[in-house]
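TOKENISED FOLD:
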Amino acid sequence: MKTIAIDSRKLLVSALIAATLAGGSQAFAATPASTTVQGHEVQASEYASFLKDKYSIALTAGLTKGEFLSAFAEALKAQPAEKPHTFTDLAASDPLYQDAAALYALGVITADTVSAGQRLSAINAVQIAVKAAGLKELAYTYPSSKTAAALAKVKLKPEWLGTTAAQEVAAAIDTGLLPSSYFKEIKLKGSASRELAEVLIGQTITVQGLYKHYLGYASDADIYAKLQDAFAQSDIIQSPELQAVVDAALERNIVTGYNLKDSRYEANFVDGLSLIYGHSDLRHALQLIGLLRSEGIDAKVQFEPKTSAFIYLKEWGEPGVSDLYTVKQIANGNYIEYAKEYDIAFEFANAADKQRFDGIVAAYAKKNEDGQKGLLYGSWWQPLYYSLTELPGYKKITNNKIEHGHYYAQSFSLQSSSQAVAAGFREIDPAVSVISYDFWTDVPFFNYLNGESK
């Protein structure tokens, strides 16, 4: 495999981001069945979509307490309990037992009875959510007057529930874990609707940091400042354990480039509504956000720091020093350059807006000739953006990824080259575990992997 030399360092970094062997918008609607996150209304259906996409959880109408607990255990990624627990109404052979025991160990279930087959009550659902969200200690600080004031919002009296239950419901109300649009469901003998259950799970995993991660929306007034801050606070990523493998792969020409990323910044968006766009220049990202707004498209926006590595040839001259890159000289006199870049993850309001993105980039952020006018600042010959779900007109390629802790290195390749890349990584380090999966990229980057620099 040959490294493809391109006439601009910035373009080279863009194209080698991970290379190896080679209509209208729809606003996020505010509905009664919704809650507010970062100033935008989150519908119960959005939580439901997330739970189905990430955990294959699909709650049913008239759900039981057992179904709710099982969904909670899955969403919380609850690990099996180290010590078994004996429930008076749930045998160890029951399919729900492992989830119940795990939740008991976490302090979410606090009794020796589960009542799995009972219809889930709204009040009990709130109590479970408070404990699962890690808010019970806050709840138990509530004096009677504060508890009564909160419960008045749902027309309940503390003595109807008992001290502990009253405090838990009060804390859910005050913290927003229970959105005001669901106050009407909180009745003494009221059953929990499917929507309430979805929202309580969604709100809980948000508190626990297990939901989506994003700076805000493209439509937010402060989104540009947030992007500026995120870029300024990001650094060149270093992971010696990973770089020992992928740098050797660069030197041996197994790959022509790779990325280093940090999983703690991943957006965790719903795959069918999201894509990732990579670049190196912040001004380009700011203009891209403005472009989407001008086209009537809103989307959640997450900044994911990234470092791209590639071979810098000695005949290009001294690489110099910059806050945006660093270099390491290798045995043949060339260098490995590590460049500060980023991915912007977008989650669109609907699938139609996601599909529109390709045409917008092609028109305003895809360079086709030298000196071309009417493009965003820093537009690339071969822009890179991709989706984990199939999109019309996109091409399927493969990611070859290795991990160490929360860092990972990845190198993109043609599907036909993936096995060779993985084998090359394992030849360098037989202990390495290579994760390979297919995804869909824009045509220009696919063409780059096939050897086209423009």
User: Anything to note?
Assistant: The CA atoms of residues 156 and 289 lie 46 Å apart. The chain is about 35% helix and 20% strand.
